[in-house]
Each structure stands twice: as C-alpha cells, then as structure tokens.
Amino acid sequence: MVEDKVVFITGSAGGIGLEIGIRFAEQKAKVILSDIKEEPLQEAVNNLKEKGYSVDGIKCDVTDEEDIQRAMDELIDKYGRVDVLINNAGIQHVANLEDFPTEKYELLLKIMLVGPFIATKIAFPYMKKQNFGRILNMASINGVIGFAGKAGYNSAKHGVIGLTKVAALEGAEHGITVNAICPGYVDTPLVRNQLEDLAKSRGIDLEKVLEEVIYPLVPQNRLLQVEEIADLAIFLASDSAKGITGQPVIMDGGYTAQ
Ligand code: NAD
C-alpha cells in the first residue's frame, strides 16, 4: 500500500512518531525519521536498520525554518521526491491562562503550528510536481474541543486543523491530500509522565489515576495504543484514502462522542 513511498516524519525519535515510522518501514516504505533530540533518534534509526528496514535519520528542529529546509534538501538529494510528510513533533505545557508564560505559548505554537506550516510550504512544490502527496498533521482531540489549562496546546492543535483544511484545498487538484489525525489519550511516555504528576499530587498511584480520572472520560475505558494511531496513518497515506482530505480524523475511544 505504501511500498517505496518516501516518508518524512518530524519528532519521531520516540512515541507515536517512531511507531508510525516502524509501521511504514514494515510496509517497505523509505522512512526518514527526524527529531530535535539526536541521541534517541540515532538509536531508533540503528535499531530499525539492524532489522533490515530502509530508514534514515536527520536531526531537525521544527522551530527553525533553515533546519526544516536543510532536512528536506537532504532527503530530496537522496530520493528525489517526498511522498508523505507527517508533522508529528509536539510538546505540552499545562498552566492556567493567567500563569501561562507568553514565551511558552509562543513555543507551543511554533512547534505544533508554524513548524507544520513551514514543512508543508517546502514539501508542496515537490508533491505538486509528482502529482502525489500525503500530508498528515498530528493534531489531537484538543484541536476539536477545549481543555482547561492547555491554552498553548489547544490553540496550536485547533490552528493546525485550520492549516490542514487550507492545504487540502490548495492541494486537491494536484493529487495531494492533507488530513489531521486527532487522537485522544494514547499510552505514551508523554501521557504517562503527565498522569504520574497527577498521581503524585493526589497521593495515589498511576493505575488509580487511570481508573478514577481517565477511564471515566473514555467510553471504551482504556488508553489508545500507538499501533492504532500508526495504522490510521498508514490508511490515510494509502490509495484507499485518496478521497479523504481536509479532515480532522478523530480516534479517541469515544471521548468526543459524548
Ligand atoms: P513524544 O514526546 O513521545 O514525541 C514528541 C517528539 O517530538 C519527541 O521525540 C520530541 O523530542 C520531539 N520534539 C519536540 N520538540 C521538537 C522540535 N522543536 N523539533 C523537532 N522535534 C521536536 O509525544 P507523543 O505522545 O508521541 O506525541 C506525538 C504527537 O502526537 C504530538 O504532536 C502530540 O501532540 C500528539 N498527540 C499525542 C497524544 C497522546 O496521548 N500521546 C494525543 C493526541 C495527540
């Protein structure tokens, strides 16, 4: 389905991005992992290469336009095309509005909204020339509904869904689809660390936080697994999904259905 496709994934040294990279590599795509963190990136690339997959690693800070341009130039030099761009890099900061540092707010927007804008801008001419492209922006249910304490994250994720729609419209006649993946709570170190903090503040353990705070919010009573998000990314990048564009695609165990 995605065999031989050239796939560039930002923020993919671990978590969801890496799992997406693994899934694409298993399906014989040519995967370029990238991240601001060099060491885990190299480790991930080495592990996958040892398994015989076609994987490269390029260090790239998505807050730096020149860095994104350099990464894209490098992969175009090697493969001559970019078929799938996955804007996945992300961070979190939780604070009430009045305590939310402006520089943190700006940083969240830079990583999760401006970064995807720049990467899309750079990839678009190649995708237009190929008359083929798939862009997946990792949004969140935070891009669809509000969450107290998450001004930066929520604004960035709502914004990236707007960007997704504009890019989908501009890419539609050129064989380019652009969609936003909107996961609910996924079982990743990022989410577990946040829940550990909550557990500590309540003097209970992580399992209790899951049972008492998180599961009651999720009709399926569970955290999503990274493999499920990766499978959705594969589907959206495949020919079967060529009619889906400009959409926030929600996978949240029923959270936003309530
Ligand atoms: P993660 O922390 O495991 O992965 C994020 C990656 O982004 C890290 O490897 C990090 O080093 C990288 N990164 C941070 N700043 C960067 C920068 N400036 N340039 C390049 N890379 C940078 O988190 P995750 O849970 O795997 O999240 C991946 C994406 O999925 C994020 O966009 C996140 O908002 C989104 N998401 C996650 C969940 C969840 O439950 N985990 C839910 C909804 C959406």
UniProtKB/TrEMBL annotation:
It comes from the Bacteria. Coiled coil: none annotated. One of its GO terms (molecular function) is 3-hydroxybutyrate dehydrogenase activity. GO terms for biological process: bile acid metabolic process. Keywords: Oxidoreductase. Belongs to the short-chain dehydrogenases/reductases (SDR) family. This is 3-hydroxybutyrate dehydrogenase. The lineage of its organism: Bacteria, Bacillati, Bacillota, Bacilli, Bacillales.
